[in-house]
Design a protein that fits this description.
It is found in: Cell membrane. This protein is an all-alpha fold and about 400 residues long. It contains 13 helices and four strands.
């Protein structure tokens, strides 16, 4: 048990140091954004009404890069500092350059997509690949198939987080909550399958992700003083997806140990759970835009967070509500690993039911209001009709007497 907390302290120190560096660099990024007039323009679909600088993601990427390099000096982590780390650093560099370029010049979506594929391809070429499909544990033995699937997963996750980055603090907060659930799962999984080496690439990446977002969030929560821009959203997706792929790779290499106390469905269930909001929003956006015969990358005001604000929630309330959804789904999934399934499923269903009611509350209140309003109007119309009939009766009576 002592070793558990000693090793955990190493990862928590990485989280804290990354957060401090991200926190220190973000004001500098804001200053550069203001001086360079790198603003997010005010458009009809946007929630802000004044220009806000958007280079915050560069501070996050630099913090991750600095700590990822410094962590190589920790003897405990030396075993994972091989070719994959170099690939991850290069992918972060590609994300940083392409993201800053897009923030400056608003690149065409094809160029942005090519940059995402390049970053994902570098990760796959470095050896971090989907080696087994966690549905029935179907092994993927073909190298080309591994690379294609890995690129697809990473690009999908990058765009999912890019799509939900529409409210102050939403993407970074969702990444912290979902990333922390994944961090706990990955750490416990590593200790379960290997009693001698607790270093793990997925755990390290999620620690870096959590730290970068924690340091940035104070400046980004409503009312935001800076946005993460393309760099931040793509960095979150890159790290989250790479960590998920790394877990499947680890499990594929440790055939004899992977099912010990670990449900076989968790490596696919948990990434889907912690990213349920970004993926759902991405899926709905693609369907919506395809139906309108526009590009899936074209922006609009039809995202989940827009609907909540339009429905009656304030900016902060909508963000906090989406935080709750992420927490319940993400931690509900990871709890299946450590608690009886019946208890976890029951508690999660109750929590989700309450969240559904809470989410629909503005629409329910509005519907009740209009129902009362219609009843009041109907009553007034009936009263006017009754008064009109009475007046006509009096007039007829007077005419009869005359």
């Amino acid at each position: 048990m002592g070793g558990f907390f000693v090793v955990m302290k190493v990862y928590l120190a990485i989280v804290a140091i990354t957060a401090l560096i991200s926190f220190a660099l973000t004001p500098m990024a804001r200053m550069l954004g203001v001086r360079g007039r790198v603003y997010t323009p005010t458009r009809k679909r946007d929630m802000h009404r004044e220009p806000i600088p958007k280079l915050g993601g560069a501070a996050m990427a630099l913090a991750v890069t600095i700590v990822l390099g410094a962590a190589s000096l920790i003897p405990f982590l030396s075993g994972i500092y091989q070719a994959p780390i170099v690939g991850i650093l290069l992918a972060i560099l590609v994300t940083l350059v392409m993201g800053v370029a897009d923030d400056l010049w608003d690149l065409h979506w094809i160029i942005k997509f090519a940059g995402q594929v390049l970053a994902a391809g570098i990760v796959a070429a470095a050896g971090i690949r989907v080696e087994a499909m966690p549905v029935g544990w179907i092994h993927v033995d073909n190298d080309l198939a591994q690379i294609v699937i890995t690129i697809f997963v990473i690009v999908l996750t990058i765009n999912a987080f890019n799509f939900i980055d529409g409210l102050d603090g939403l993407a970074s907060g969702v990444a912290i909550i979902g990333g922390s659930a994944f961090f706990i799962y990955s750490y416990i999984l590593t200790r379960t399958i290997n009693a001698y080496d607790y270093s793990n690439l997925a755990t390290l990446l999620t620690a870096l992700l959590i730290g970068a977002c924690l340091g940035f969030l104070p400046f980004n929560f409503h009312p935001a003083r800076i946005f993460m821009g393309e760099v931040g959203a793509q960095l979150i997706g890159l790290l989250m997806a790479t960590a998920a792929v790394a877990v499947t790779a680890d499990l594929g290499a440790l055939e004899g140990f992977r099912f010990r106390n670990i449900p076989a469905y968790m490596p696919i269930l948990l990434p889907l759970a912690v990213m349920i909001l970004p993926l759902l929003d991405l899926f709905m956006a693609v369907l919506r835009r395809t139906a309108r015969r526009t590009s899936p990358f074209s922006a609009d005001r039809g995202h989940i967070h827009h609907k909540l604000v339009d429905g009656g929630y304030t900016h902060r309330q909508a963000v906090l509500l989406l935080y709750l959804w992420t927490f319940v789904v993400g931690y509900g999934a990871v709890s299946l690993t450590y608690f009886p399934a019946a208890m976890v499923i029951g508690a999660t269903i109750v929590a989700l039911a309450l969240l559904v009611v809470l989410t629909l509350r503005p629409w329910m209140a509005r519907r009740a209001y209009y129902r009362r309003l219609n009843k009041l109007r109907a009553a007034r119309a009936a009263e006017r009709a009754l008064n009109h009939s009475a007046e006509q009766g009096e007039t007829y009576g007077k005419e009869t007497r005359q």
